[in-house]
Amino acid sequence: MASRDEAPKLSSSVKLVLLGEAAVGKSSLVLRFVNDDFQENKEPTIGAAFLTQKCALPSRTIKFEIWDTAGQERFASLAPMYYRNAQTALVVYDITKPTSLTKAKHWVSELQRQASPGIVIALVGNKLDLAATTASDGGDADGGDGGDGGDAGSRAVLTAEAKAYADEEGLLFYETSAKTGENVQSVFEAIANAIPENTLKPRGGAGGFAGSGRGGGAGGAGGSGGEGRVGTAVNLEDGVGAKDGCAC
Amino acid sequence: MGDFNEEYDAVIVGTGLTECILSGVFGAEGKKVLNIDQNSYYGSESASLNVMEMWKKFRWSDEQRRVEAERAKAEEEGKQVGASATPAGPEPPAAFGKKPSEWNQWHISLVPKFLMADGELTNVLHKTGVTRYIDLLQVGGSYVVKGGVPYRVPSTRVEAVTSSLVSNFQKFYMQNFLQFIANYKEDDRSTHKKGLNLDQNTMREAYKIFGLDAWTSEFIGHAMALYVDDSYLDRPAREPIERIILYVRSMARFGKSPYIFPLHGLGELPERFSFLSAVYGGTYALNTPLQEILFDDSGVVCGVKFPHPNTKEVVTVKTKKVIADPSYFLGEDKRIRRVGKLIRAICILTHPIEGTENADSAQIIIPASQTGRKNDIYISLVSSTFNVCPKGFYLASVSTVLESPDSGNPHAELEPGFERLGLGSGRLGRDEEKFIQVVDLFEPVEDGTKDHVYISKSYDASTHFETCTDDVKDIYKRVEGKNLVIEQRKDEQQTDES
Predict the structure, then answer these.
(1) InterPro entries attached here (chain B) (predicted)?
(2) What domains sit in chain B, N to C, each tagged with a CATH number?
(3) Dihedrals phi, psi of B184, to nearest 5 degrees
(4) Cβ atoms of residues A78 and A72 within 8 Å
(5) pLDDT tens per residue across span B449-488
(6) Number of domains within chain A
């Protein structure tokens, strides 16, 4: 009856959206997860609307449909359809950049306000390789400064601080390095485990959000997943061109 | 600053469907495109709004909107205003929702249009791959009103036989006509009607050749060729015949009506195209009014100025081309001219429309002849099936071309439509609502080839988007000097091993 090109896939297909300030490594995390690859100085996101990757757990296989922002977050212009019906969100910040955590918190509250009920949110502090430590698994704090091999700055967001915030909001929390691959797999596995069974169902049914799972899940937000303009933002700094405009 | 490019191939102003399709097309061709929009949402005139946004647009004062914008900005900058802060103007009644997550269940389309299932927009959606990300559902019925009663519009020979819309005497002729429509192929003369030349005969003559009487030709012209008035009768038959073919083919795709409509409302369309454009590297900035278009010595566009969406400092970028919707040139007689006025009422109902077998969605046409008007009245209905409102509600739009703009009482022209909805004489049920708007239709004065400012047309009175895609093609041709060919998009790179 409807012209839907996309027939329902595996019953465990899950829409995952990436959120976070520009240049915190959202796409790199996905690239590491999907292709086990890393590109230094990766260009801002261009190319695919979403990637898919399976995550096999003992009990079930989750197929992530991973949506990248395509850079629309830069000027507070992420379309509401982006996180509509998302079952899980990866909110990423850069552990060397405190403002990126502020933005991440903003996205979390936006998701809690606007996204589907029962959405699983993971807070991820990326660029762990730049922290001056030989990395534990993101467990406890180590604050340190001073660069190890990294050429750039050092940790500026304490693990404990972010962890406390995540606990308070009921978020999954990890620190990762897309560059070394550290903890990347763990994040996605943790998400796969946290997704309530009753929200796993074929995508794109006409019934829509109205009946979508009310299951628990971390950071459960109110309301039915619908749109809502994303009034909030992330700004500045991304790789494209970037010179001060002055024409004519 | 420092985050916009110094130069773009095109700056597109407004995020209406026309602009977003063009943005997607240019992006796919590898051009650098910047899109700005003064609104806080995607879609411009073709947006879908949630119920709170509807209140802001229709029920708030300018001052209230200004204060609200400042409040939102402060909140965004992390000054803890908190979610509980009171908005600057009135909220919708509690029956429509008490908080953002409930308001967001509404996607109220500002333009009352559907997609033709076999139309050009559907084709564009398909070729660009946008259908991958959008769910389109069939609209439940297409009706035409006669003697105060809605009838399904017959579009096949069988329906022509059974429809009580067609008199017994006319059934045979109607069948012949539909047979001709179904078989017609431009390059096969055996499918052409003897004595009918589509370019030389008028449609009035064509009806006569097929022996169709006044009423039959009226509903064919209005409910199938979808003309709002009778001026087409004395023009060549080709265009009306092509429109009837489009109607019948669209009808044949899914069966209940020729129309389809996106889950979550029409605003999905510009949003999805904008996302496509962004995927190709296009840049988007909402809440960003166009401040000034800059011209070089020869009078050709060389840049635009606008306040930075985040810092509000003035940004100047170079560009050789500006494409914009007419709302950015209000009052500029050298840029745009008014070609008509529409009146539209968006109604929130708590019941389906009488006479439609409780359809969850429908298009109803009240032909001008039935009301003593020159222009038809259109009703379009969608409901929670399309995820555009909570269960139990229906969204109906009533619209027509305003015939007496100076009468001081434009609402009266919609009255036959309101009566159909059970809202006659100003009646409004519990938890029902009406938003009435007089809309100016504009078109550009110049084609833009001289100064490289290309302006799109307003979304017209028609029930579908065919004129919108015409405009897209037309603008593309003016900008690029060649016809638009949309390449079938290759399947996306996916590591999809399933």
Answers:
(1) FAD/NAD-bd_sf, GDP_dissociation_inhibitor, RabGDI
(2) 7-107+265-334+444-492 (3.50.50.60), 171-250 (1.10.405.10)
(3) -60, 130
(4) yes
(5) 999 999 999 999 999 999 999 999 999 999 999 999 987 7
(6) 1
Cβ atoms of residues A215 and A229 within 8 Å: no
Vertex B144 angle, CA B397 and B342, to 5°: 35
Which band of pLDDT confidence, cut at 50, 70 and 90, is reported for residue A168? very high
Contact call for A248 and B296, based on CB within 8 A: yes
> Does the distance separating the beta carbons of B384 and A75 come in below 8 Å?
no
The residue in chain A having the minimum alpha-carbon distance to the alpha carbon of residue B116 is: A3
Q: How many CB atoms lie within 10 A of CB B81?
A: 15
Question: What range does the domain containing A62 cover?
Answer: 11-133+154-199
User: Least CA distance to B4: which residue of chain A?
Assistant: A242
Label residues A145-158 b or e (16+ Cβ within 10 Å = b): eeeeeeeeebbbbe
* Interchain pair B76, A209: CB under 8 A: no
Name which of A202, A200, A182 is nearest A191 in CA terms: A200
Q: Do A245 and B272 touch (CB under 8 A)?
A: no
Residues counted in chain B: 498
Report the residue of A9, A69, A229, A244 to disrupt the B interface, i.e. the one with the largest count of B CBs within 10 Å.
A229
- Nearest CB among B7, B278, B498 relative to A70 is that of B278
Relative to beta strand B33-36, strand B283-285 is: parallel
Whole-model pTM: value is 0.83
